[in-house]
Every structure is written in C-alpha cells, then in structure tokens.
Amino acid sequence: MPKSSNSKSRQSFHHEVLIIGGGAAGLSLALHLAHHARIAVITKGPENSGSTFHAQGGISAVLRPDDSYKSHIDDTLNAGGGLCDEEAVKFTIEHGPENIQWLADLGVPFTADRHKDGSKSYHLTREGGHSHRRVIHAADATGQALETTLINHARHFDNIELFDHHIAVDLITGKKLGLDHNRCIGAYVLNKEKDQVETFQARYVILASGGASKVYLYTSNPDGSTGDGIAMAWRAGCRVANMEFMQFHPTCLYHPEAKSFLLTEALRGEGGLLKRPDGERFMDDIDDRAELAPRDIVARAIDHEMKRLGAECMYLDISHKPAAFIRSHFPTIHAKCKEFGIDITKQPVPVVPAAHYTCGGVITDLHGRTDIERLYAIGETAFTGLHGANRMASNSLLECLVFAQSASKDIISQLKEPHSWDDIKDWDESRVTNSDEEVVVSHNWDELRRFMWDYVGIVRTDKRLQRAKRRVDLLLSEMDEYYGNFRITNDLIELRNLAVVADLIIRCAMKRKESRGLHYTLDYPETDDSKPAENSILQPE
Ligand SMILES: Cc1cc2nc3c(=O)[nH]c(=O)nc-3n(C[C@H](O)[C@H](O)[C@H](O)COP(=O)(O)OP(=O)(O)OC[C@H]3O[C@@H](n4cnc5c(N)ncnc54)[C@H](O)[C@@H]3O)c2cc1C
Q1: What distance in Å separates the CA atoms of residue 378 and residue 329, rounded to the nearest whole number?
Q2: How many CB atoms lie within 10 A of CB 71?
Q3: Ligand 1 binding residues, C-beta < 6 A
Q4: In a mutational test of the pocket of ligand 1, which residue from 167, 191, 246, 396 has the highest number of ligand atoms less than 8 Å from its CB?
Q5: Which residues are CB-neighbours of 278 under 8 A, at least 6 positions away?
Q6: What pLDDT is attached to residue 9?
Q7: What is the pLDDT of residue 4?
Q8: Percentage of the chain surpassing pLDDT 70?
Q9: What is the helix, strand, coil percentage profile of the chain, to 5?
Q10: Residue 1 has what pLDDT?
Q11: What residues does 207 pair with on adjacent strands?
Q12: Stated pTM of the model
C-alpha cells in the first residue's frame, strides 16, 4: 500500500522471527530459538491473555513404565473418530516425554507424589479417553504455571522482544506486494496503545494465535480466541481443514459476568444432577450412563433441551449432598459461584455448554510449515492431523509443545542462508475515516455469535447451516465495506476474522454429509463407513 501523505511517523521493525501469539505454542518456540535468532513475540492483550493461562487439567504424555506410546496412540486414534493422521499422532506422542522434561527443567512446578522411601515422582491423572494415568499437571492450574514459567524465561533473553497489546491485522506476502516470490515476509500490526499500524518484517512468521471458540455465544475461552491466525492465513492463501469439529464443554456457568468459567465434570462424578428449569432430570431418558455419559453426549442433550424448551440454560444440582462435602471437594467452584450470588450447597447452578476447542485450522506438515513459504502455524491455530474428529483431553498442550520444538528445528536449519530484506510500504490510512457508527460492529458481533450458536452449534441440520451461510455472506460483505472505509480498531479486526472463521466452519460442516466425532447433524445422524473418512479441506480462491 502506498504511504499515506499525512501519516504520523510509523515504526517498522525487523526481526529474524515474528511470532504472533504468546501462549504455550508461541513462547515455547521463542525459547527454543532464543540462542539463534532475534525474535518478536506479539500478543494482542496482556502477555498471558491466551487460553494457555486458563488450562486446568494438564498435559498428556507417556511418563510411566506401565504406559506405552502404543497405548497413547491407540487412545488418540479412538477419540479421533477415524480421522486422525496416524503419522502426526505418532510424531506428537513420541516427542511427548522430552518436551515434558524440557518444561520440568525450566521449572514448571508439576505436582509430585512423595513416596515412603523419600523419593518423588510426578502425580499423573487420568482423563476421559485415556486408558492410563498420563496427564501431568500443576494442581488444578496447569496453564497458569506453564504460561508464567515460559514468560519469566522469555523475559530473560535479550533476543526475545515481547510486544503486548499489539494485534496483527494481516500477513504480508510477496504476492500481496507484487514481488517475484510468495514468501511470508511479515505482518501489519496495530499498536493498540499508540493506535497506529506498524510494520513487522521478518524472515520467518509463525501463527501461534490460538483457537476460534469466541465465534460462539458461549465459550470457555478468553475473549481473544477469535481465530485471527486462521483468518489471516486463509486470506493470505493457505488451505484450512476440519473447521466443523468444534469441541463443546457441557457445563459452563451461565451468568452474564461469569465469562469462561467451567464447572468440572467431577461435579457430576460426585452426584451432581442435570435438571430442566422445572426441576425435572433429563439425562436418564437419554443415556444409560445418565449424567456420566461422555462429554459430547451430555453437551448435545443440554443443547437439545434448551432448543426444545426455548430455555436460556439448564441446571446442575448438587445441593442434595452435604454442604460440608461440597465445600471441601469443590472449594473453587463454591467460592466462584458465591461471587455471583449462587450457593451451590443450597441451589442448582445455571449451566450452558460452551465452545471449548478448535480441532481444525491452518493445514501444516510435521514442522508446522503451511502452504506459504516461511509461514508456520503451531498450537490451536494449526491443523496437524493429531485430533481428527475429536480432541482427546490434554493432547492440545502437548501439540503446542511438540510442534513448537519441530518448527524451531526447521527454522534453525535455514537461518544461515543469505537474506535480503524486501521493501515494504507502510500501512495506508489516507483514505479512511473514524467510524461514527460503532454500533455496527457491536451489533454484528452479537448477531454472528448468536446465529453460530443457534444454527451451527452442537446439533446441526442442512437447513440451519444454509440459514447461517446466508447470514454470514451478508455479514462478510458488510464487513468488507466497513473495513475498507473506516479506521481499524481491535474490535473491527476481530469481528472481520470471526466472520471469516464462521464462514469456514459453515463450509466445512456443509461438506460433511454424515455425523462423525464432534460434528452431529440430524440430517445424517450416522457415520458413513461406506468409504474411508476424509478431512474437510478448503482451498482459498
Ligand atoms: C478453560 C480451558 C481449559 C483447558 N484445559 C486444557 C488442559 O487441561 N489441557 C490441554 O491440553 N488443553 C487445555 N485447554 C486447551 C489449551 O489450553 C489450548 O489449546 C492451548 O493453550 C492453546 O495454546 P496456543 O499457544 O495455541 O494459544 P493461546 O494460549 O490461546 O495463545 C494465543 C496467543 O495469541 C495471541 N493472539 C491471538 N490473535 C492475535 C493477533 N491477531 N495478534 C497478536 N496476538 C494474537 C493472544 O494474545 C495469545 O497470546 C483448555 C482451554 C481452556 C479455554
């Protein structure tokens, strides 16, 4: 873009590596590269604003002699509903233990058991789908411990520059600039404090910007999970796959101010009952295991009841248990609900299922390389083939670590090649004005998340998908016009990306004429076993 004649003087930066995202994936990569290259890590909010900080359960890896790679691989393939890439599964799992060791060496305070002879070993938990104890954790706040340790280490390296409150707007590629190559050579980034778009040029660019669960009305994710990396990669020309496989957690606290608060499955494990607003149970009509049926079945049942009754939420009731038992087993939940005026020892808790994890994403190989030269995608942004049609609990943080490590090896192996910087023009704002209609953004934001929830949520039909597609098409064209005419803001950037991601989810869902894993449609309720399972791959024009 030509430089605006009246532009303020803008900053532009040159680093060997630009990492967009400072969660488990982005920070691990930065630390692996820190002795080899100058790195910029940008985060759009405070440094710890991604999902990583919120992870509770832990990280899966084969860490005990009675466990085996084969068992972890088999469990992952089973959960993935016939769509996992076996090579990616094997690769991830076999690199698990060394990455856990790497974290332990950095000082992540994993919970340990002390034995009678004075020795210690890591305490491992077992989660849904895992046939062994293999989830290493730091009490019930693994993500916080992980993120904090990684940030503290990153701060110590002169080679790593951390830019918080910087939101990447779009990738810069040779093709976009009309150059004779199509390498990724940087990104335009809005410095939110200065309200100015800056140019970050880099030899290697990595999308480590997390998932897209914010596309739904209810989500367990932090506000920034707007699929920015997926949308940017798509706009730049990368293929995207399997976006229909969004994982929903069955029970999130339903309260206007209780964002992102999960109610653990253990509540149901200890006798919590799911009830309709009239106090009647419903899970016992749906599955023999009632409240203890697998996550996707419970989430689907709650969704079905809400839609059938037009209810805003269902209720989780454990108040029939002794108050002392509840307080001692669930102190955090008890305290958190109290903050919102709900006493779980005396009353049922309003709950909704919530979008939790994005299984699809930007297609990569085992080094995190995308379709565009020198552009990588790692962590929840990427589609590596590990998760297939359903992510197994605690495999996601493992994927962040393993692919950060493998991408770093690939980048290090190329750093010695000669390099010259391209000439990149500043961002042009000469033709745009400040919007006097912020309401357009907030209205579209709400509308998008609502129709995605209603029409492209846990239970889908062809008709609902078509309705959603018509709405998202309209929204995309409105956004294009708005984006072209008005000065960009954080909200506008995120909304534009959410609209792209919503479109990708709908298109993938429309391609799949069967129910498989996390994708359930009333029009094709069975899995199609008549032919080999296929990924839903979308190719940009
Ligand atoms: C409540 C909760 C509990 C979970 N529990 C577990 C668990 O126990 N085990 C497990 O394996 N997984 C768990 N997960 C999933 C796991 O936490 C995530 O998949 C993982 O942390 C993703 O890491 P990431 O590095 O890819 O992205 P994130 O940690 O989400 O980080 C994304 C980063 O990208 C930045 N960013 C995004 N867009 C832009 C942009 N445009 N410009 C600049 N920066 C940008 C953000 O600011 C952030 O720094 C949980 C998730 C949630 C929400």
Answers
A1: 36
A2: 16
A3: 20-26, 42-45, 49-52, 54-59, 142-143, 167-168, 208-210, 220-221, 224, 228, 262, 357, 379-381, 394, 396-397, 400
A4: 396
A5: none
A6: 57
A7: 34
A8: 98
A9: 35, 20, 45
A10: 34
A11: 20, 377
A12: 0.94
